[in-house]
Hints:
Blueprint: H1 29-39, E1 45-48, H2 55-62, E2 66-69
Parallel strand pairs: 1-2
Helix pairs in contact: 1-2
Amino acid sequence: xxxxxxxxxxxxxxxxxxxxxxxxxxxxxxxxxxxxxxxxxxxxxxxxxxxxxxxxxxxxxxxxxxxxxxx
Length: 71
């Protein structure tokens, strides 16, 4: 749920973010953050089975979760 107690709706407007690395499709942190907040408690484990540019793991750690990424 969002800060006001309401769930996000089915269409999310999320701007893209620049990425200096070599990955061709990095996820914006704003796309990953609400999913982690909604689905994992602080101190919990967030699994990213595809790793990619590492956005999921980085956001998980920033939010107090453990990011576990598979290669």
